[in-house]
Design a protein that fits this description.
alpha+beta; 60s Ribosomal Protein L30, Chain: A; Phosphoribosyl-aminoimidazole Synthetase, Chain A, domain 2; 10 helices; 13 strands; 29% helix
């Protein structure tokens, strides 16, 4: 029997990274007082985004993120027109999680070698992501650092990251503190892998199967299209729901660590997710080919849900209607439970998680 594949064996140890952050954050947290009254952060580090007080009841939300090793697939295929969408998505989806409206983004692009055709494709993707999010990309930086980057093929290495800002009234910040027992968790469907877990996904999927070969396991899609499918941008349906109801109590971008991201919310409740939809076929393929244990799958990947909205039961229909109006798939997937403080339970999958990660229920 093959030894199960893991994220750490592929080279990514999220537990070690979290432990190592304490020294860095110890210094960064001391900067909170530097701006004085105007510009001071109003939240702690560690949420999806932080909000800074601009005075007169207005806050500006900040977030930064990149695309990760999904870029290695773009390099391999020399297809760059979708990863710009990913870059926008990973930032604006985090800005949403404090209840803010994203308004602008700046990008940082580092390249091994300047290639005008590649830059045009990246620009096309950034433009499409900005269009979907309703943000302006008014500035950025291009760095040529051949000594630091290596592509596959040689000369194609690059990295792209961004920082986004949004605006929110200070009295409308959503951080989960208003969540009550019985609130509904609505899951917005992902498009697939999004931009997380690619170190493990590439280790399992890239090899003997040609990237351009249609696969029955993927419904006739090929690996190239599946691996470069862009991250969904949830700005329009979530902002519409926020405008239509005051009953939203928590917002969570489901990325790496899957539903553990719900535990970032500042609530005394945990979450019981009883009606999750079936994961996309690509997750089944990874699990089977790895093989990858189910606990590892839920630790690394979004498993079919890209964003969660927690709301009062009487607001659920409004949230679902906003999703439908913007052509997003969404459904109620569970509830907040006061008896599960600090825990996410997936009873149908036989899994339970706390901040240490996922494990088999009863294990």
């Amino acid at each position: 029997m093959n030894t199960p594949e893991t994220y750490s064996a592929a080279g990514v140890d999220t537990g070690q990274a979290e432990n190592a952050l304490s020294g860095l954050l110890g210094w960064l947290n001391q900067t909170f007082t530097f701006p004085g009254a105007v510009g001071r952060p109003v939240m702690e580090n560690g949420f999806y985004a932080n909000v800074h007080d601009l005075g007169n009841g207005l806050g500006v939300a900040f977030s930064t993120d990149g695309v990760g090793t999904k870029l290695l697939v773009a390099e391999l295929l020399r297809r760059y027109d979708t990863v710009g969408i990913d870059c926008v998505a990973m930032n604006v989806n985090d800005i949403l999680c404090v209840g803010a409206r994203p308004i602008a983004l700046v990008d940082y692009l580092a390249v091994q070698r300047v290639d005008g055709a590649m830059l045009e494709q990246l620009g096309r993707g950034l433009h499409e992501g900005a269009r979907q999010a309703g943000v302006a990309i008014a500035s950025g930086e291009l760095a040529q650092i051949p000594e630091m980057l290596r592509g596959g093929p040689e000369g194609t290495g690059f990295d792209i990251a961004a920082a986004a800002i949004g605006v929110v009234a200070l009295d409308r910040i959503i951080d989960g503190s208003a969540i009550h027992d019985g609130d509904v968790v609505i899951g917005f469907r992902s498009s697939g892998l999004h931009s997380n877990g690619y170190t493990l996904a590439r280790r399992v999927l890239l090899g003997e199967t040609p990237l351009d070969q249609p696969l029955a396991a993927l419904g006739g899609a090929n690996l190239a299209d599946e691996l470069l499918r862009p991250t969904l941008i949830y700005v329009k349906p979530v902002l519409a729901a926020l405008e239509q109801t005051s009953g939203i109590t928590g917002l969570a971008h489901i990325t790496g660590d899957s539903f553990l991201n719900l535990l970032r919310l500042h609530t005394d409740c945990g979450f019981e997710l009883t009606t999750l939809p079936a994961p996309h076929p690509v997750f089944d393929l990874i699990q089977q080919l790895g093989p990858v244990d189910l606990t590892e799958m839920y630790q690394v990947f979004n498993m079919g849900i890209g964003f969660c909205v927690v709301c009062r039961p009487d607001a659920a229909d409004t949230v679902l209607a906003a999703a439908k109006a913007h052509a997003f798939e969404a459904q109620a997937v569970g509830h907040a439970r006061s008896a599960l403080r600090g825990v996410v339970s997936l009873p149908r999958e036989g899994l339970v998680a706390d901040r240490r990660g996922f494990r088999r229920a009863g294990g």
